[in-house]
Amino acid sequence: MNDYKKMIRILVYPNITHNSRGQDIEADSFVQVIKKQILLLNQIRDDLWFYLVLPKEVKSLKLSNTSQLIYPLPTYPPTMRSHFNVDRFKKLIPHNLDFDLIFSHLPEQTHAIKNTMYNLTHHTPNIFGYCHWFDLKEVVSWTVDSFLQNITGLLSCNRCYVNTEYQKQMVLKQASEHFNSKTIKQLDEILKVHHLGVDENDIVKSINSKPLKIIVFNHRTHSYKNYNNFIKIMDKLWEERKDFKVWIPLLDGKPNKPYIINDKGDKDFYYQKLQECCVGFSPKQTYGGWSVATTDGMMNGVPYIMYDEDYYKELCSVSDFFKKDDEVIKLLKLYLDDKKYRNDKATEILKYTKKNLVYKNTIKEMSENMNQ
After folding, report:
1. What strands, in cross-sheet order, belong to the sheet with 260-261?
2. In angstroms, rounded to a whole number, what is the distance separating the alpha carbons of residues 32 and 41?
3. What is the pLDDT of residue 140?
4. Residues 6 or more apart from 201 whose CB is under 8 A from it?
């Protein structure tokens, strides 16, 4: 008698923002996250098949256990969160596909997905999620947001993963302005902190003990990353000394300061350039999420100075922290001038990364939740 093993079929609904204005969809955070999650889950088990809803074919997601369901989607965030085409979605999920789970990366659409699937097909799968972004009032820049749709969507999930405890508490606080304590308790149980760690194979074995005098700001150059204030601080440091450069790989256009460089390249170039940097900067951010940019540097042996807030202490408790601009200047001078201190701190942070931030350890909980 042949052994039979059931494949668990998972419909993955995306959150795509890098598909307009000629942007490369391969660089989208959803594409990067879901690829990492699938590959790590595949190391744990071999009974999962992912049906990826995508606006166009994505080469990096052509994996041994994935199918791509092409489904045109708007990518401008306010539109993307509110748009749902029932007729198109019905055709996307025919009766001959029997889904066991829905993994939604856009909780705002959970009710619409569930409504369509449960009412018009024979599929009644459980739903879990991962939220890349909440329309929190401290952050959102558009006039009408989708925060309430996000929350009602979350309440249809068995679980939804968020980046940090700090971010979770921001969501619960804003939700409590609209919902009663019973609903907030339910939401508290659904939201699960899920730190986006690093691939163990990407962690360098040892630090570069002879870095160049480069400060790296490898975050997006947006206001929610406090970019303008960072530049003001660098201007002050440049007035005092002119022996350093600031690498900003995500800067569009030509550098407009004598100390800025924005060299670009592929993933290998990016990692190699990080290893040449003396110190990284993790700015104050209004969103309170996980900083993949920071963990990129840490796994390449770069020590980071970080804004003194819980969302960074969740990420790396052994870093040097700052509150005020003059504290930033003082710390950067220390790292640029004291090679021993810089290398000791880099070694400490690399050791911390290897012990605490390997993503495979975190993904095991997601696998167990799928079984439940």
Report:
1. 260-261, 245-247, 214-216, 279-282, 304-307, 320-322
2. 14
3. 86
4. none
Length of the chain: 372
| 118 & 212 share domain | no
| Residue 352 within any structural domain of the chain | yes
The CA distance from 369 to 372, in Å, is 5
Q: How many domains is the chain partitioned into structurally? A: 2
- Residue 287 and residue 311: Cα distance in Å, rounded? 9
Is the per-residue pLDDT at 19 higher than 80? no
Question: Do 367 and 347 lie in a common domain?
Answer: no
How far apart (Å, rounded) are the C-alpha atoms in residues 13 and 45?
A: 22
What 3-state class would DSSP assign to 53?
strand
For residue 259, the enclosing domain spans 200-356
Euclidean distance between CA atoms 239 and 367, whole angstroms = 52
Cβ–Cβ < 8 Å for 315, 324: no
Task: Provide the H-helix boundaries in the chain.
Answer: 29-44, 77-82, 86-92, 110-120, 147-154, 165-175, 181-190, 227-240, 267-275, 292-299, 310-315, 325-337, 339-356, 359-371
CATH number for the domain spanning 122: value is: 3.40.50.2000
pLDDT given at position 4:
58
Instruction: Name the DSSP letter for residue 276.
Output: T
Token pair of 311 as six digits: 């969302």
Beta strands 214-216 and 304-307: pairing type?
Answer: unpaired
26 within some domain: yes
Q: Taking the C-alpha atoms of 177, 181, 182 and 185 in order, what is their torsion angle to the nearest 10 degrees?
A: 90
Q: State the angle between helix axes of 29-44 and 359-371 in degrees (0 to 180), rounded to the nearest 10.
A: 70
**Tokens at 139, concatenated:** 């952050």
Confidence (pLDDT) at 106? 94
Encoding tokens for residue 363? 């993904």
* Cα angle, residue 320 at apex, residues 343 and 240 outer, rounded to 5°: 80
Least confident of 19-33, 159-173, 179-193, 351-365: 19-33
